[in-house]
Amino acid sequence: MSPESTSALSVSSGSHGDAVVVRAVGDLDYDYAPVFRRQLAELWTAPPTPAPRLVVDLSGLTFCDSTGLAELLWVLQRSGETGTRLVLAGANRTLRHMLATTGLLAFFELADSVEDALERP
């Protein structure tokens, strides 16, 4: 896995079987959302495209604001357009609450950990 940035948000990705795992560590907010989007956008343009499954590891997030939530919605939309199964792994209680409060929780597949997401059929 190679880091995308050493700023307040670092994003790395790697292949695991039929899945690509993207790990976000730090703040997913207005200032650093472009780092997240750039890394994800590259995944849909790099061969082979698209991966059958995308696991976004959010266990390292320390903060997520409405801009970060919008980025997750963008990933959900893009996944739907490309036929990629999206799993959010390790979302903390605050992020789960934000998704529930906004009525978006039902649209995301959640897993407690990356390992749990990768073990799913």
Instruction: Classify the fold: give the CATH topology.
Output: Transcription Regulator spoIIAA
**Portion of residues within helices:** 25-40%
Summed up, the helix count is 4
Describe the biggest sheet? 6 strands, mixed
Mean pLDDT: 91
Q: Helix-strand pattern, N to C?
A: EEEHEHEHEH
CATH class descriptor name? Alpha Beta
Domain STAS: 9-121
Organism: Streptosporangium algeriense
Protein name: Anti-sigma factor antagonist
Family: Belongs to the anti-sigma-factor antagonist family.
Considering the chains and any ligands shown, give keywords for the structure.
single chain, 121 residues, alpha/beta, Transcription Regulator spoIIAA, 6-stranded mixed beta sheet, 4 helices, 6 strands, globular
Write the layout of secondary structure elements.
Blueprint: E1 2-3, E2 9-16, E3 19-28, H1 33-45, E4 53-64, H2 66-82, E5 85-89, H3 93-101, E6 109-111, H4 114-119
Parallel strand pairs: 3-4, 4-5, 5-6
Antiparallel strand pairs: 1-2, 2-3
Helix pairs in contact: 1-2
Q: What does this protein look like?
A:
It comes from Streptosporangium algeriense. InterPro entries: Anti-sigma_ant, STAS_dom, STAS_dom_sf. Residues 9-121 form the STAS domain. This protein is of the alpha/beta class and 121 residues long. The chain has helices at 33-45, 66-82, 93-101, 114-119; strands spanning 2-3, 9-16, 19-28, 53-64, 85-89, 109-111. The chain has a 6-stranded mixed sheet with strand order 1-2-3-4-5-6. Strand 3, helix 1 (33-45) and strand 4 form a beta-alpha-beta unit. Helix 1 runs parallel beside helix 2. Mean pLDDT is 91; it is low at 1-6.
